[in-house]
Specification:
Number of strands: 2
Helix content: 55-70%
Strand order of the largest sheet: 1-2
Order of helices and strands: HHHEHHE
Structural class: mainly alpha
Shape: flat
Length: 137
């Protein structure tokens, strides 16, 4: 029952690095947290609009495909300022983002399991990502 929530927290903590704040004051931490949450929700909405395209692509190929979240998050962060401050129509920017999301797909390969290799890392004050993904920023 909780698996969806647990994987969401893993995505937030490891790939979006939600624990890496730009300041130490409570206001800075809240701002970073809610901005990150807003960007994630906007990304999810754009992904939801791409479902008919993903179904059409998956019918033609061997695997089911999904949007690469890390790449799409980086694209969205690059265009966030355009979305709110440019004179372009926001709907045009959102459609452009949807087209970019649909260009970066990854297959869902069922039944893949690999043994986890635990590495000993020295912590020097920087945040450590615990997944195979690099940071989207």
């Amino acid at each position: 029952m909780r698996w969806g929530i647990e994987t969401y927290y893993g995505f937030e903590k490891n790939e979006l690095q939600i624990e890496s704040f730009s300041g130490i004051r409570p206001l800075c931490i809240l701002q970073d947290f809610f901005a990150n949450l807003f960007v994630y929700n906007l990304q999810s909405i754009i992904e939801k609009q791409s479902e008919p395209y993903l179904e059409a692509v998956s019918k033609k190929r061997n695997y089911q495909y999904k949007i690469n979240k890390n790449v799409s998050f980086a694209m969205l962060k690059d265009r966030m300022i355009e979305l709110f401050l440019e004179r372009k129509e926001p709907a045009d920017i959102l459609m452009e983002l949807q087209a970019l999301f649909e260009q970066n797909l990854e297959p869902v390969r069922p039944g893949r399991k690999y043994p986890r290799i635990k590495k000993v890392r020295k912590v020097n004050g920087k945040y450590i990502t615990l997944t195979n993904y690099k940071r989207a920023i």
